[in-house]
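Supplementary Methods S3. Input chains for the assembly prediction are listed below.
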Amino acid sequence: MTHILSADIGGTTCKLGIFDESLNILEKWEISTNKTGEGILENIYDSFVVHLNRKNLDINSMIGMGIGVPGPIDFENGVVNGAVNLNWTGNIEVRKIMQKYFDGPIYVDNDANVATLGEKFKGAGQNESEVVCMTLGTGVGGGIVANNVLLHGHNGSGAEIGHFLVDQKKRFKCNCGMKGCLETVASATGVVNLVHHYYSNMSLKSSLHDHIMNKNVSAKDVFDAAKNDDEFSQFIIDKVAGYIAYAASVISVMTNPKYIIIGGGVSNAGDILIQYIEKHYKNMTFRPAQDDTHIVVAKLGNDAGIIGAAGLIKTYVIERENK
Amino acid sequence: MTHILSADIGGTTCKLGIFDESLNILEKWEISTNKTGEGILENIYDSFVVHLNRKNLDINSMIGMGIGVPGPIDFENGVVNGAVNLNWTGNIEVRKIMQKYFDGPIYVDNDANVATLGEKFKGAGQNESEVVCMTLGTGVGGGIVANNVLLHGHNGSGAEIGHFLVDQKKRFKCNCGMKGCLETVASATGVVNLVHHYYSNMSLKSSLHDHIMNKNVSAKDVFDAAKNDDEFSQFIIDKVAGYIAYAASVISVMTNPKYIIIGGGVSNAGDILIQYIEKHYKNMTFRPAQDDTHIVVAKLGNDAGIIGAAGLIKTYVIERENK
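Predicted structure tokens for the full assembly:
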């Protein structure tokens, strides 16, 4: 019992990996995502068999298998309730299906949670027991590690950090059906929302003027322009950072993590974003809670998912046995 | 090894109790709080010895001792960093001091956390693994139980629910030094803040007019008047409830508890307050997170503390051994 199998299922590709007990990668590779129902789970198993065979490893000697899926999860039962990007509808019993092929322990969690666990164990979380990750991509996802384990909440809505009201004016509609969620002002989409909202109402001119007028400006354009001293873009980043900092200030008095990790596409902006966030965070956060709390950029990029999925086995199988 | 000793240290009295393994009370009593330094801990031990002796129970056969203290705690080490109401300044090593007298396991936590644990095990929390308590008294305290254990955070600021910004206009100064915290608009003090703020700016007359003008109106007055159809008081409760509901909506997407328990003096308002909170909560909370989440009034009153302090021993000694 020496290795962990890990799969991070995405809409286009599945990332697969074989890990040792300390979550070091022995091998990682990708297969295309088969979107005709549950076939992808059999494909994943078959691919593990082939790769293990090449290494003279026996699938029956594996410690367990961790699986990340882009959809809402019933963690206890390993069931996914719909995954739009995989064309999965209704309840898909991922653990039960995989158990037809694989005998060992299987843990399934959503993509934001496994990415958080990856960053906790091997990334910006420095293996601390209290870590929160905000993933700022097309939407805003999150993961909370407290007392060394992920929080799922009573119905799986734990760490749905993108969906609480931060824009009191409720200017933009969210995909969740509400208005004013963090996601509407802090995701890549949110950055663009704010650009269009403010540009027409302000006298500041921007090097992005034509992009803005043609409605093809991206969050990346805004961060690049800000780095090149575009005042309007800096103004927008300051706004975005204010909302992210507010979320961080709330998180700090809720679960009080040592590391608040900013991941996802928006985090590619890097230091400039963190500097703006820190300025607001320091001013708006309960003093004792901000003491020795660090806001940092995610480190693992696309590998966070497979490392974290393997981390499920480390958390729920290896560390439990060692208790 | 059949019984648990429990102490809830307050500014005026210490509540003491002897519990069985299922947290049923065998006996509870009070002693006055000796405020001359650490003497109270020896007093507590002596009182336990006397009461155990009467029951023919041996202090050396106790499973453990749980202690609640009104001050910030380093939970891991059982150290309190100052407790104003006890005249304790600096770091007081409560566990270490008590270990001079008592040999068994000792766990120490703050009053808000032990009250939460009490409500979780024997009160409004119905023994669920995901429970949050907001204690609305002179200030606002909180406790978060997730994955069946209390969250302390990396530096003990977990569940400091009273101290994040909810009043965007930052109208009232908080004891923590910031402005606009939940505590400034949802505690008993907060209710009075809002009364004075709105009464001078509104045409609504109130049966509390004289009290308001004489600056001796209390939160209880406002809730009583609201129940007697005083429109201004109902307006104030609606405002207070809106802020509490906002906090509940944030909590729901952070740790997603099954029960959000409202305790403390303000919760004596009872059903009328819960009704106002629920109305706002339903409108402002991420739909999946509010599903099967219940906002309820605390049940245990002043006993929550000793039950929860005993609950520390159940959580960290009894349940760990049974794992």
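Chain B touches chain A through 47 residues (CB under 8 Å). The mean pLDDT of chain B is 95.
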